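Re: Re: ligand-bound prediction request (bumping)

Still looking for help on this. To restate: I need the protein modeled with adenosine monophosphate bound, output as structure tokens. Inputs repeated here so nobody has to scroll up.
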Amino acid sequence: MLSIPSGKVVFSGIQPTGIPHLGNYLGAARQWVDIQKSNQCIYCLVDMHALTVWQDPQTLRQQTLEQAAILIAAGIDTNKHILFNQSAVTAHARLAWIFNCVARIGWMNRMTQFKDKAGKNREAHSAGLYVYPNLMAADILAYKANCVPVGEDQRQHIELTNDIAQKFNHDYQIDFFPKVDEFIPKTSAKIMNLRDGTKKMSKSDPSAQGRIEMLDTDDEIASKIKRAKSDSEPLPSEIEGLQNRPEATNLITIYAAVTDKSIESVLQQYGGQGFSTFKTALADVLVEIIRPIREETKKLVADPGHLKKVLKQGAEKASAIAEPIVSEAEYIVGFLK
Ligand code: AMP
Ligand code: TRP
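Reply:
Sorry for the wait, this slipped through. Here it is.
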């Protein structure tokens, strides 16, 4: 279904906070697994980005391992590709500092994610949250990555990355950093909250009833789907019939994404029926896709020593790529070498 690029250096990052949910899996992890078939991939657990808002230290450590386990269980191949935690490769912080000095305050002020996250009380947030996008630019450019699979919400940060690269190249009169292409798969579904089809399924929602977590038991998955909000009409046979029916749209979207079918074909199959048969079928396919990932994750998490070793090896491989690039950038700006 997806048209996946090939032969690129792919970089992407995910914050190791909260328990990943179905939206993270369908919107990020599953794509990462698909892309690795035809590209060199570098996947990063961005613990430094996580720190931009308060994190309990012990929980952050635990969730970094858990997130790594889920990605490996979902199919990231750590032998052929690179998986590591950001803070283990110092090149990120060093390049981020240079970028803090390249990017303009006016650029930061335009970042909508900062405005959303900081809300009205901007003064009380960490300075790290404000310069978060510069660190993200450093993540990508430390590897001269040219393909960055992300969700729609990250598009502005990729544009900023290109602005920083261009200004760096211009200021120092050197063609050093490449242009970065975001890769936002058109077919990538935005998964909505099961209790409110107008809200994104999100880790930060206080109630877990609106999201399927990747570590939910079979029973929890079935019960969340059974109790998911729907409406009183039967399912339509045509896509137009989903208009103004956010909850029906979401459940159909999830079914289509999980089974790799088109929405049209799902509607052909279930059109005219009530929600109860469809919900049972949806719960069944979800249980089938999540169970093996959950079981494998549990095994991996039971051996933190092994996971730490995998991440350490990933960090060494990442460092081998980033170190010469960032070292050269440091020389270009005038640091002694
Ligand atoms: P976050 O949970 O915001 O740290 O996002 C991690 C990754 O999952 C990003 O690539 C997001 O675009 C993706 N993602 C998060 N929530 C959803 C959702 N509800 N539907 C689809 N993708 C999502
Ligand atoms: N900011 C991204 C998010 O919130 C995570 C991220 C950090 C990232 N560094 C990155 C994504 C570099 C892609 C490339 O989802």
